[in-house]
UniProtKB/TrEMBL annotation:
Residue ranges the UniProt entry marks as DNA-binding: 41-60
UniProt GO molecular function: DNA-binding transcription factor activity; transcription cis-regulatory region binding
Lineage: Bacteria, Bacillati, Actinomycetota, Actinomycetes, Kitasatosporales
UniProt-listed Pfam families: TetR_C_22, TetR_N
InterPro entries named in the record: DNA-bd_HTH_TetR-type_CS, Homeodomain-like_sf, HTH-type_TetR-like_transc_reg, HTH_TetR, TetR_C_22
Protein name per the record: TetR family transcriptional regulator
């Protein structure tokens, strides 16, 4: 066999393996979302993926390994999502604009990946996932504090931390309601969630100064 063909064979096998893993993870996401992690089985995941259990075991030894791999990938995507949604804002940015941007980004992520909520809030989450989620939660709170500091530059750190905890707690409570509905009713709950956050933050932030045009040089 020519040398270039020998190099291509491992690449093809690797590509097939990656496609199979993606197929199994997609099937697992469906099963975990539908039945919950505790009731899910490797047989159900293999059936959903349209493969034999033996094929599944070539890539994952058990459902915990599947859940951990799926959770790792979702948490990576979640970090990217909140990194973009929670960037500090300019001094004249309305609080409504910041809330809209952050909530829309997070709601979109959770609606696109309902398995994330199912895994993170189930009664039997694998230990490693719990640890990684706790680390993600701590980082998320830190980013919320940084965003709040844009609106409350003179607030003591303890106040920022408390307000960040409240914002995240309100969001998580609203998220469960949002995910429990579809269509127009889901959109209505999203609006209600934004209203709750805005009404909580508005008295703390006060009126934002109007954006002023840049000064022009005088001759």
């Amino acid at each position: 066999m020519p040398e270039n063909q020998e190099k291509q064979q491992p690449r093809r096998r690797q590509a097939r393996g990656e496609r199979r893993i993606a197929q199994l993870l997609e099937a697992a996401a469906t099963v975990f979302t539908t039945t919950g992690y505790t009731a899910a089985s490797t047989n159900a995941i293999a059936r959903e993926a349209g493969v034999s259990p033996g094929t599944l075991y070539q890539f994952f030894p058990n459902k915990e390994a599947i859940a951990i791999e799926l959770g790792d990938r979702l948490m990576h995507q979640m970090r990217e999502a909140y990194g973009e949604a929670l960037a500090p804002v300019g001094p004249a940015t309305p609080v409504e604009e910041a809330v809209d941007a952050a909530v829309d980004r997070f709601i979109a992520f959770n609606c696109d990946h309902p398995v994330f909520f199912a895994l993170m809030h189930g009664p039997d989450v694998p230990g490693r996932m719990t640890e990684e989620h706790d680390a993600l939660h701590a980082t998320l709170l830190s980013r919320i504090e940084e965003l709040l500091a844009s609106f409350l530059p003179d607030a003591p750190p303890a106040d920022l931390t408390r307000t960040a905890h409240m914002c995240l707690g309100l969001y998580k409570a609203g998220l469960e309601l949002v995910l429990g509905h579809e269509g127009a009713e889901r959109a209505a709950y999203v609006r209600e969630l934004k209203n709750v956050l805005i009404r909580y933050l508005r008295p703390l932030v006060g009126e934002r100064p109007a954006r002023t045009p840049a000064a022009t040089a005088t001759p």
